[in-house]
Amino acid sequence: MPVVRPDTAAVPTFSVQWLPPHKVVVHDNDWNTFQEVIGVLLRALPGVGFAAALALTEEIHRTGAAVVFRGDLDEAEACAVTIRAIGIKVTVEPDA
Length: 96
Description:
By secondary structure, the chain is an alpha+beta fold. The chain contains 3 helices and 3 strands. The model has no long low-confidence stretch (mean pLDDT 91).
C-alpha cells in the first residue's frame, strides 16, 4: 500500500469572529434590602469593592435599573446567575 504524505504547502485558513461585549442590567424591586443587593454584587462582580457596590445599589434604587457589569458573554451570564439567586430581575444584553 502506498504511503501518502500530507501536503505541507497547504496553509490552513480560518477567521476569527469576535462576539460583542455584553452588559448585565440589574432591575429594582420592592423586596430585597440594600444589604442583600450590596452583598450579592460583592459576590457576583469581579473586583468590585464595598463603595462601588453601594453606589450601584443606590443607582438601581434611584433610577430603577443599572448596568453593573460589562464583559464577555460567559462572564456576564455567570454574574447574572449569582445575582438572580436572591430573586432580583437581571438581564444580559449585547453592549453595542
